[in-house]
Write a structure and sequence with these properties.
single chain; 259 residues; mainly beta; 5-stranded mixed β-sheet; 5-stranded antiparallel β-sheet; 18 strands; binds calcium ion
């Protein structure tokens, strides 16, 4: 756990707890004043990516009940793509993954995968991975480890794979097209204040600096502000156009930025 906030989130007089830890699953724990807490993170709209709630990194794999599909999820800072099929198929299950990060293929079981990297700028690589699962087999898995877990990950799955077959994150949600982007936040710190003075405490989250290369990820790496609506938080960072930009560099040594 990297940071936490201990505040009365739901204004019932009892202190609650919110935790952040880089790209990992957070907790939003409502206290009852008796020393026990109820985790409501799943329900209050603080997911890393609105399109794919349940994408956050976890130590636990989503439960897969041998239902045929291409399961894509984060586990222990690695992207897992798991192929499950109840019958052999002549149709290939293949695609391409693009990341703005150096990447290692940690394992590929019943899956051919190859890396093609392009140097995007000093220290940042744009990496393409082509993969194809052996559909003669009932199971396969590709595990890749990006150097920067919060860098966006673009998928293009070939169109012969039906969209309901593609299942993303803990909730195994289907994407709306064969091209989709997964984006985890690199959440570092929290601050709580009743920003709009409506009696409900609101939340600001600071995100990491991509090792001093924030300017190359400016579309994805802004800090976040959430307004508390009572039983849900509403992301308003874009509405107030809060942008994170590098301000200063340290003497040409490690390119650390101040924000
Ligand atoms: Ca409370
Ligand atoms: Ca408020």
């Amino acid at each position: 756990m990297l940071d936490n906030g201990i505040v009365d989130i739901n204004a019932d007089g009892f202190l609650d707890i919110y935790t952040v830890n880089h790209t990992a699953l957070s907790s939003l724990l409502l206290g009852n004043g008796q020393g026990t807490f109820r985790d409501i993170y799943e329900y209050w709209g603080l997911h890393h990516q609105e399109e794919f709630p349940g994408l956050e990194d976890s130590l636990v794999e989503p439960e897969i009940k041998n239902e045929s599909g291409l399961y894509i999820f984060w586990k222990e800072r690695q992207i897992h793509i798991k192929f499950v099929s109840s019958k052999k198929s002549a149709q290939s299950v293949s695609g391409q993954i693009t990341l703005h990060s150096p990447v290692k293929i940690k394992s590929n079981f019943n899956c051919e995968a190859s890396i093609e990297s392009n140097l995007l700028s000093p220290g940042i690589k744009k990496t393409h991975i082509r993969f194809e699962f052996d559909t003669e087999q009932s199971k396969g898995r590709l595990v890749i480890q990006p150097d920067m877990a919060a860098a966006p990950v673009s998928f293009h799955i070939e169109s012969q794979t039906p969209l309901p077959y593609i299942r993303i994150g803990r909730y195994q949600l289907n994407p709306s097209s064969h091209h989709f982007v997964l984006r985890l936040k690199d959440r570092h710190g929290t601050a709580w204040s009743d920003w709009n003075r409506d009696g409900l405490i609101d939340l600001a989250i600071s995100n990491g600096g991509f090792r001093g290369k924030t300017h190359q990820f400016s579309l994805y790496n802004n800090n976040e502000i959430f307004v508390n609506l009572g039983k849900k938080f509403n992301q308003v960072s874009d509405l107030i156009q809060m942008k994170k930009t590098p301000r200063r560099f340290f003497l040409n040594k490690f390119p650390k930025c101040l924000y």
